[in-house]
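Q: Please design a sequence for this.
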């Protein structure tokens, strides 16, 4: 869709990307189309992390790389030193293949000889690298900033010493944290996709996903924004206020791999949110602040409450910002929070009951009762907020009767919610 658009036409707010001779050239591609990919904070964080460390970064997205064009610079992918593809979600798997085809690379890693730069996969969906392993030379599992920079440094050293071969290089970087080299393993799967045999060629049998970097030292926020993004705002500043989750719901990858080394959710500090918001406003006049992972931005250890979030929303409003939150935890829901969201101009709230009441204990959500769910409905009616609910299907132990009960529950919520308010089920 945007294959003929330059960086200047696509990006409305944010710095230009410096490109200097003599620096390593890395193509950073995102398997999402531009309108979603530019909103991906992980992709932006990695880009800026490398730029700050004197790496030439060339950006591309699933719908911008037609004929191998990046949105910035005139280099071709074949001339890059390294190519990376971020895979945020499983529904972008096929876009990885489309990207490889668009940039003129053989799809299978085994078909790419020394003339092609190595292709590195990463992103949230690569917490399970097996489905796309035939197409990547390398996969970074988990947090990727430090490890990718280490790969860049090793490549720079190999090139300076004029001793680069793909085989030797892959064996050396296999020692780095979170690095999976698909060609170093023989993996057999059955007709259902389950691994039946696993053999290693490099002696590394277990690969531990990298944990997220500390959010205070390495905050994650918007560097570049676009009116063509998936958000409905002309300008916005997205900020990750927390990562991970203390609840550890068994079906959810967030609580298992996105927290700190101790397994607990990471949080940015309150003062830093204010400082970053003011800096963005000073530079670009931005007023809309999107707070990601608001559901884990909570004081009180393992318990979740709304005190931190309410204090932050109050201060942002006082300073003239318009804050937006995503999915919230039902333990944060109270009248004061709903009122604050309303004064910030939010038109809906999102919660995740997931299933019917008697099945919620099986997935770690016994604390969500139907009474609490209908309390949310009452608050939405009172404050004129539409309601979005995350629901799951086919969880272990679910029967046809449970499915009918879930449909009935949704119908009851719809009837209890004011007719002029929307109910969305995701």
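A: Design:
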């Amino acid at each position: 869709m945007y294959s003929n658009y330059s960086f200047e036409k696509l990006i409305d707010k944010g710095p230009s990307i410096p490109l200097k001779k003599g620096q390593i050239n890395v193509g950073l591609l995102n398997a999402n189309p531009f309108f979603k990919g530019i909103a991906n904070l992980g992709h932006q964080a990695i880009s800026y992390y490398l730029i700050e460390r004197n790496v030439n970064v060339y950006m591309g997205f699933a719908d911008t790389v037609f004929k191998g064009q990046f949105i910035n610079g005139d280099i071709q992918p074949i001339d890059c030193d390294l190519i990376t593809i971020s895979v945020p979600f499983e529904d972008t798997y096929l876009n990885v293949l489309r990207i490889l085809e668009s940039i003129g690379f053989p799809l299978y890693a085994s078909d790419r000889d020394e003339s092609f730069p190595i292709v590195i996969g990463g992103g949230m969906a690569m917490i399970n690298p097996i489905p796309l392993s035939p197409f990547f030379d390398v996969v970074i599992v988990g947090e990727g900033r430090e490890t990718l920079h280490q790969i860049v440094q090793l490549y720079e050293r190999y090139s300076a010493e004029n001793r680069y071969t793909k085989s030797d290089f892959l064996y050396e970087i296999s020692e780095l944290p979170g690095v999976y080299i698909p060609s170093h393993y023989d993996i057999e799967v059955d007709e259902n996709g389950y691994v039946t045999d696993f053999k290693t060629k490099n002696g590394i049998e277990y690969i531990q996903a990298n944990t997220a970097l500390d959010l205070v030292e390495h905050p994650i926020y918007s560097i570049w924004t676009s009116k063509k993004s998936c958000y409905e705002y002309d300008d916005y500043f997205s900020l990750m206020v927390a990562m991970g989750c203390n609840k550890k719901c068994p079906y959810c990858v967030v609580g298992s791999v996105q927290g700190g080394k101790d397994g607990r959710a990471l949080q940015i500090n309150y003062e830093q949110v204010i400082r970053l918001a003011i800096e963005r406003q000073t530079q670009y006049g931005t007023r809309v602040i999107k707070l990601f992972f608001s559901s884990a931005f909570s004081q009180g250890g393992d318990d979740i409450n709304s005190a931190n979030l309410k204090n932050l929303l109050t201060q942002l409003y006082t300073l003239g910002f318009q804050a937006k939150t995503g999915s919230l935890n039902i333990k944060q829901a109270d009248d004061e929070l709903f009122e604050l969201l309303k004064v910030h101009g939010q038109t809906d709230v999102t919660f995740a009951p997931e299933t019917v009441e008697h099945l919620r204990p099986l997935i770690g959500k016994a604390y969500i009762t139907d009474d609490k769910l209908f309390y949310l409905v009452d608050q939405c009616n009172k404050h004129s907020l539409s309601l979005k609910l995350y629901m799951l299907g086919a969880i272990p132990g679910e029967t046809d009767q449970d499915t009918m009960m879930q449909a009935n529950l949704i119908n009851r919520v719809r009837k209890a919610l004011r007719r002029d308010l929307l109910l969305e089920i995701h």
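Q: Thanks. Anything notable?
A: The CA atoms of residues 316 and 323 lie 7 Å apart. The first strand starts at residue 25 and ends at 30.
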